[in-house]
TrEMBL record:
GO terms for molecular function: hydrolase activity, acting on glycosyl bonds; peptidase activity. Its EC number is 3.2.-.-. The keyword Cytoplasm does not apply. Keywords: Glycosidase, Hydrolase, Protease. The keyword Protease applies. This is Protease I. It comes from the Bacteria. It comes from Anoxybacteroides tepidamans. PANTHER family: DJ-1 PROTEIN, DJ-1_THIJ_PFPI FAMILY PROTEIN. Belongs to the peptidase C56 family. The lineage of its organism: Bacteria, Bacillati, Bacillota, Bacilli, Bacillales. Pfam families: DJ-1_PfpI (PF01965).
Length: 183
């Protein structure tokens, strides 16, 4: 039986950070469910690094959320992916999401968080307190505020937890996550 991976996201997810993991995991033969606050078509965004002091954002493709957070039983999944973009800043407010994410950390299942995904972890700081992780540089103060140790590596592995800066780091991010899944 193939392993089941849950991706939690919402509107304004960074397109590459949801599509790349989704298709890469399907390619490896895993079952993948995308969950969001509501089961619907999600709008993605494209974040790019122009010559601004921060990234620019443009509309991206649509992608289906297969289930709502309320419908998810995290015990039925083997691993979790949290993409970035702007989705984490509001999906973390959904009352069902913290308990979903907490399950994966407490059960020591593989968790992958990229870019602004660290905002989701701010709702359950005890699960990452004292752990090492990376995230988009603008998220460094939040990572440190929840008691995690921010590392500047583009991709970082701390036991069952893989984190990465942003979409340019997706190859290493997914390579490390798939290693954890295949243990």
């Amino acid at each position: 039986m193939s392993k089941k991976v849950l991706i939690v996201t919402g509107d304004a997810v960074e397109a590459l950070e949801v599509y790349y993991p989704y298709y890469r995991l399907l390619e490896e033969g895993f079952e993948v469910t995308i969950a969001a606050p509501k089961k619907k078509k999600l709008h993605t965004v494209v974040h790019d690094f122009a010559d601004w002091d921060t990234f620019v954002e443009k509309p991206g493709y649509l992608i289906d959320a297969h289930a709502s957070f309320a419908d998810i039983d995290p015990t039925q999944y083997d691993a979790l992916v949290i993409p970035g973009g702007r989705a984490p800043e509001y999906i973390r407010l959904d009352k069902n999401l913290p308990k979903i994410v907490r399950h994966f950390f407490e059960a020591n299942k593989p968790v992958a968080a990229i870019c602004h995904a660290s905002l989701v972890l701010e709702t359950i700081p005890d699960v990452v307190k004292g752990r090492s992780m990376t995230a988009y540089i603008a998220c460094k103060p939040g990572v440190e505020a929840i008691g995690a140790n921010y590392v500047s590596e583009p991709t970082h592995v701390d036991d069952n937890f893989v984190s990465a800066h942003a979409w340019p780091d997706l190859p290493a991010f997914m390579r490390e996550f798939i290693k954890l899944l295949n243990k």
